Amino acid sequence: MEWTEPGVFEVAPGVYRIPLPLPNDGLHTVNVYAIDDGDGVVLIDSGWALDAGEVALEAALGALGRGFEDVRRFLVTHVHRDHYTMAVALRRRFGTKIALGAGEQPSLAKITARRRDGFRDLATWGAPHLAERWRAVVESVGEAELRDYEEPDEWLREDDLALEKRVLRVLPTPGHTRGHVVFIDAESSLLFAGDHVLPHITPSIGFEPARPALPLGDYLDSLRLVREHPDLRLLPAHGPVTESSHARVDELLAHHEDRLTATLDAVRAGTGTAFETARVLGWTRRGRKFAELDLFNQVLATGETAAHLDVLVHRGLLTAAEDDGVVRYAVVS
After folding, report:
1. Which residue in 17, 94, 90, 28 sits closest to 55, CA to CA?
2. N- or C-end of the chain: fewer Cβ atoms within 10 A?
3. DSSP string covering 247-288
């Protein structure tokens, strides 16, 4: 995949894509975007706080005639480790300012308070055995990894950010996470999309420390919000740069409608919980069976199925009732 190759790639005048490595991850790399801004640079996202990532970022900045000390600020699309934690690590050494969407406050508060309780959602979704396995994984995470997280210097809300050479519009796009934001450079027709709009895959929905009531509903609303803006060049966090944000948004909206139909059909066929429904659906573009997924992706799949089921309830097509701590869904008769 060409987009995963290391280096520095100019994607617009004064804007550079820098792929940074991810550990044992099917995504392979995360794109950080460096914006030339006078005597410094601004970075959109930061990468995962890994030695290999830091070496790659330092080399890329060096190719631009810059160093870590020249990074004015990190504008981070969301709180996930592969976007946020390198910024925290570099701030500790260089004092670089970090900005993050205000909607991430509840989740970040849980992370920094060491509240590791995502397994509770899994039990509610009818997967107590997954909950126990996930609990063991989460509790094995060392304090050093938890310390990768700190609060940002600035909480971003919808607004215009004036850099020295350009203005970026901050647009909250909850869904992948409740505090996800994208950045729009209207003058250059660029969308720094983070994980909100990805060219080849759909972002995970519905599994985060502070889960909102209707994460998929939020995500679909956020896609429509981006669609209301002019068609922009898509600069994603994972995958190649593409020319039309509208085209990909339309594909994602259609995909989730198809997924909602498949989810409804599964309940009609007799599934009752999110876990039971997830087990009969196909996963990834190859339609893999649930049992073929690793633990982490089974957890994500169960949470995403719950998110689709809740939208169907919201649309009046299903009912949901809690019984002994487990939510069960049924078709509206």
Report:
1. 90
2. C
3. HHHHHHHHHHHHHHHHHHHHHHTT--SHHHHHHHS-BTTTTB
Q: 């099917």: which residue's tokens?
A: 26
The Cα–Cα gap between 102 and 154 comes to 8
Is the whole model's pTM more than 0.85, yes or no?
yes
Length of the chain: 333
Cα torsion for 327, 265, 200, 86, to the nearest 10°?
0
